[in-house]
Design goal:
It comes from Cryptotermes secundus. This protein is mainly alpha-helical. The protein has three domains: 45 residues; 53 residues; 64 residues. The chain is 64% helix and 3% strand. The protein has seven helices and two strands. A two-stranded antiparallel sheet has the order 1-2. Helix 1 crosses helix 3 and helix 2 packs across helix 3. The chain is elongated and about 125 Å long. The model has no long low-confidence stretch (mean pLDDT 79).
């Protein structure tokens, strides 16, 4: 059994239809071959027929043509307003943005942020998708400063902890030495008492 191509590339199926249609292969056979290679849900017979009819009529492009429809309500002023809000607070969410810009929906706000401004969410912060060298340098400097501050605080905490342990250990060591001294002294006395020296 042949392996299916489960995720065809963008416009790959239309290109195959165009190729097979140019070879004058019947519509039903084109659909059968597509289903055999891409799976049964690749495209309906009606859509294959539509594409074949368009290619036979002289269409060259495999991409969908622009359609007239409802005009976009996204304006340059709106995009700039959203940019200002994000630069004021990089941690702002789309929901919070919608309270600042109530005239448009959350999905349009998300479209403005991700497609027009080319921002993406990174660690709960909006950052440009393509960082400039200045951005990269600034981010690295901030990161290094934070890391150095963390190391300094860790060293300070550890230093004070080491001093405390040293004091405790010094006392413990002194007590241990005294106990050992008395233990040896008692052992010596015990030996002298139990083994008296025979006088000659």
């Amino acid at each position: 059994m042949e392996a299916l191509i489960e995720c065809p590339a963008d416009r790959e199926v239309q290109s195959v239809i165009k190729f097979l249609n140019a070879q004058s292969i019947a519509l039903i056979e084109i659909h059968r071959q597509l289903c055999r290679v891409y799976g049964p849900n690749v495209m309906s017979k009606q859509m294959v027929h539509r594409w074949c009819r368009q290619f036979s009529a002289g269409r060259q492009s495999v991409h969908d043509e622009k359609r007239s429809g409802r005009p976009s309500i996204i304006t340059d002023d709106l995009v700039e307003l959203v940019r200002e809000r994000i630069t004021e607070n990089h941690h702002v969410t789309v929901t919070e943005l919608s309270s600042h810009v109530p005239q448009i929906s959350g999905s349009l706000l998300h479209e403005i942020v991700t497609e027009h401004l080319l921002f993406r969410k990174f660690c709960a912060r909006w950052v440009p998708k393509q960082l400039t060298p200045e951005h990269k340098t600034k981010c690295m400097e901030e990161r290094l400063e934070k890391e150095l501050a963390d190391v300094r605080s860790l060293l300070t905490e550890n230093e004070s902890e080491l001093r405390r342990l040293h004091k405790e250990n010094s006392k413990t060591f002194a007590v241990a030495v005294i106990i050992m001294f008395f233990a040896f002294l008692m052992y010596g006395i015990y030996i002298m008492v139990t083994n008296p020296v025979n006088s000659v």
